[in-house]
């Protein structure tokens, strides 16, 4: 057993000072009475005085690149980076090689994760005309949902087949997660800039090529289709202020059929950062203006946007150090996503309660993840202890990603995750990892 003593828990509304007893994989008891006699024989005690305690982050949008692209990243290295960054559960995308578009490849990913993942895991399954009937007729409570790329992106081909679209949006077993960008608009923009600059388009024009219009038109299409079929739809990585018009709702989260996410890079960077960071912040959808960034933060604060995710997408630095067309899109972010949000909290742009709601509670609620996302009795003990007053400078030797680079290098955070528990196991403590026990597959209650 493990006792986290003097824990100041952050939930969606307030701070609560308690003591948390972990037994096996679960939170066994939460004691409000701080005078309770905690002399448990053989119980390890961790004093969390002067720190905050929150549920483990659930990152519902990552690309870990295994199998097929493991020169960039793999499930072990990226889950380890996530553990240091407070991510205790993740859901990974299907655009690996081969793509996860059938049960055989899905089972292979589960097998790899069971052997290698330090955190809890699940996977989206992709679709095509050949596999759609098998997928919609399956009923696997380990599968997070069906992922559709409505626009072509790095390692992900856009789906345009009307038959597939109708089948996906009319099925009711799995939530549908969409990457929304319009290929026709993007291709036309590329041609126009190519006429002017050839192959060496300046990176600052990425936001004009992967434009607001391309995002809005595609998101509008997906939302209209979902409304027509009554689909449970999740819009990935909103990047524009204009898209907020499409997802605005006065409904509470448990009544929403259409939900959305913002990713940390769209909340942190703006087009003014392209000159300095160049292709290091090239991603799809693109990072846009300060106004877009500010409006996305407003959308989180007023609950228009439901989730904060990372879209963690590593590439080697050699791949990124290319001209516009040859540098792949994607940013490694999972190790510093929570610290980035806590830094925005320190700047009074979002509260710690809202961060917990958007990074821990809401992913569990939207995807119906069993017994995770909250600090509650009989829930899995996925728990973080955070020192909000401990500086933590990002240096290359601290990077745990396989690609070994980050756009956050040399930035000094004002907070640090000191302990990460996964299923009741202390996996990370002040820079030290305990890797013997691996994570579990997430289960979905549908």
Please describe what this structure looks like.
With 446 residues, the protein is α/β, with parallel strands linked by helices. It folds into two domains: 88 residues, Roll (Urease, subunit C, domain 1); 310 residues, Metal-dependent hydrolases (TIM Barrel, Alpha-Beta Barrel). The chain has 14 helices and 19 strands. Strands 1, 2, 3, 4, 5, 14, 17, 18 and 19 form a nine-stranded mixed sheet that branches. Strand 9, helix 4 and strand 10 form a beta-alpha-beta unit. The longest helix is centred in the middle third of the chain and has 18 residues. It is globular, with a radius of gyration of 21 Å. The mean pLDDT is 94.
CATH hierarchy: architecture of the largest domain: Alpha-Beta Barrel
Give the CATH H-level superfamily of the largest domain.
Metal-dependent hydrolases
The total beta strand count reads 19
Q: Label the overall shape.
A: globular
Number of domains: 2
Radius of gyration (Å): 21 Å
Write down the CATH class of the largest domain. Alpha Beta
Low-confidence stretches: none
Output the structural class: alpha/beta
Strand content bin: 15-25%
